[in-house]
């Protein structure tokens, strides 16, 4: 994986504090597991089954959408849920906000969007790992705190509409509706406590007693029980939650609970991560091998092996593991990013040349992963390609919201790259976005 990489995101989700930036935890295995589990309800909603479900690095309970391109769920909510159906209703509910047009009706005006038209919304909603000031994003584009709050909040009417649609999506997917009632009970009664003590989900998704009663009646109408075998949903839910908890909680906690996993390979994976976090890469690889014996062609286990070896400074072996993962999951941008990174850290002109197309494919496949730009910039600089290096650094700064720095680097790229070339055009896009952001 991408070292369960924390990626700062500049869409300024309204948690407890206005203008608070959030960060994403990027991992190809977790994202694949969530999307495997989400696919039935997303398809029932009429959305692409490939709509990404991304994990926010926050232990509070929240889920949200900022556009039609992805669904975001806090790590805390994933860890709090106890069944696939509970998390599937969270996804179905957020999908309903997309399908019912609640996103496009928010208080982000066309004027604000036009300020970043050069690079599109992507540069305003995501930024690179480890970059500077996170309190930028929409605030830097001139959106007042009150507008931000309204942008990320839903009305009671929208919530009722999303409940009805979400329940319908669950029923159409054969998931059943019991999970909707179970997950909603987590938040029950919070409207009676002070706002500062409420979970963020309750603040942005009003949860009245009347709404709970309507939801209960609606769920009963469609039928609480699932239809068909939902074992695959259970497997992927447990895998996503198991891996997430293994990285976020203490190794001792993980070892005490690994045997509770629904599948033996998940248990071995969790134990391998615990061993890895105790800085024993050899022991971690040995434990992971037991999971791989059960699922020998699982690309995500090869990706985890690559990470363990990379962080154990076994660079050549790490590259081989990432290469195998990329072969088994062709085109996955997070795996390609890790493969490219493993090549860049080793250096050498030939290896750097080979890393460039890998990293460029990763960049094209996932605009949210700014670490790819960092590695590309390093590779281009070492290969004495200053124009391309300046371009990637400019895009890196733009993702971070540092538009002044982005403008300086983009101008350097324009001056060095062939006039009219694709790279030159991208540099012009950064320049235009920087100018618009300063207006």
Keywords:
single chain, 439 residues, mainly alpha, Serine Threonine Protein Phosphatase 5, Tetratricopeptide repeat, 2 domains, 5-stranded mixed beta sheet, globular
Mean of all residue-level pLDDT scores: 81
Query: So what's the CATH class of the largest domain?
Result: Mainly Alpha
Strand order of the largest sheet: 1-2-3-5-4
Oligomer: single chain
Please tell me how large the radius of gyration is. 22 Å
In CATH terms, what is the fold-level topology of the largest domain? Serine Threonine Protein Phosphatase 5, Tetratricopeptide repeat
Instruction: Tell me the number of structural domains.
Output: 2
So how many helices?
22
Q: What level of helicity do the residues show?
A: 55-70%
H/E element order: EEHEEEHHHHHHHHHHHHHHHHHHHHH
Given helix and strand content, the structural type is mainly alpha
The end-to-end distance, rounded to whole angstroms, is 39 Å
Q: Which CATH architecture of the largest domain?
A: Alpha Horseshoe
What profile does the largest beta sheet have? 5 strands, mixed
Number of strands: 5
Describe the structure.
It is a single chain. With 439 residues, the protein is mainly α. It has two domains: 5-108 and 143-222, no CATH class; 250-438, Serine Threonine Protein Phosphatase 5, Tetratricopeptide repeat, CATH 1.25.40.10. It contains 22 helices and five strands. The chain has a five-stranded mixed sheet with strand order 1-2-3-5-4. A hairpin with a 6-residue loop joins β4 and β5 (71-74). It is globular. It starts with a strand and ends with a helix. Mean pLDDT is 81; it is low at 6-21 and 106-154.
């Amino acid at each position: 994986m991408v070292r369960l990489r924390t990626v700062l995101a500049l869409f300024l989700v309204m948690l407890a504090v206005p203008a608070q930036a959030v960060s994403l935890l990027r991992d190809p295995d977790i994202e694949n597991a969530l999307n495997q589990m989400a696919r039935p309800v997303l398809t029932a909603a009429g959305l692409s089954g490939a709509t990404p479900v991304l994990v926010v690095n926050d232990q509070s309970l929240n889920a949200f959408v900022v556009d039609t391109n992805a669904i975001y769920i806090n790590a805390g909510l994933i860890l709090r849920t106890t069944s696939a159906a509970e998390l599937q209703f969270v996804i179905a509910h957020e999908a309903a906000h997309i399908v019912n047009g609640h996103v496009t009706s928010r208080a982000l005006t066309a004027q604000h969007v036009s300020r970043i038209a050069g690079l599109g919304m992507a540069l305003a909603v995501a930024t690179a790992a480890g970059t500077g000031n996170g309190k930028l994003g929409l605030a830097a584009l001139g959106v007042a705190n009150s507008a931000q709050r309204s942008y990320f909040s839903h009305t009671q009417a929208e919530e009722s509409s999303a409940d009805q649609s979400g329940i319908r999506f669950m029923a159409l997917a054969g998931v059943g509706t019991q999970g909707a009632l179970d997950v909603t009970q987590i938040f029950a009664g919070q409207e009676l406590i002070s706002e500062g003590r409420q979970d963020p989900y309750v603040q942005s998704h009003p949860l009245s007693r009347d709404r709970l009663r309507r939801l209960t009646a609606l769920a009963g109408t469609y039928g609480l029980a699932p239809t068909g075998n939902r074992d695959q949903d259970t497997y992927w839910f447990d895998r996503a939650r198991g891996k997430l908890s293994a990285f976020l909680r203490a190794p001792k906690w993980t070892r005490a609970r690994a045997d509770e996993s629904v599948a033996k390979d998940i248990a071995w994976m969790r134990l391998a991560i615990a061993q890895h976090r105790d800085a024993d890469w050899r022991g971690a690889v040995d434990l992971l091998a037991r999971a791989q014996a059960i699922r020998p062609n699982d690309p995500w286990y090869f990706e985890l092996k690559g990470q363990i070896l990379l962080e154990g400074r076994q660079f050549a072996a790490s590259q081989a593991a990432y290469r195998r993962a990329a072969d088994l999951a062709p085109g996955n941008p997070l795996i390609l990013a890790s493969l490219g990174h493993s090549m860049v850290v080793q250096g050498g002109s030939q290896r750097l040349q080979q890393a460039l197309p890998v990293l460029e494919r990763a960049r094209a496949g996932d605009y949210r992963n700014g670490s790819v730009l960092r590695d590309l910039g390093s590779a281009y600089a070492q290969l004495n390609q200053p124009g391309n290096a300046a371009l990637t650094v400019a895009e890196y700064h733009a993702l971070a919201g540092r538009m002044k720095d982005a403008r300086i680097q983009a101008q350097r790229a324009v001056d060095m790259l062939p006039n009219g070339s694709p790279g030159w055009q991208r540099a012009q896009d950064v320049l235009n976005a920087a100018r618009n952001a300063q207006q």
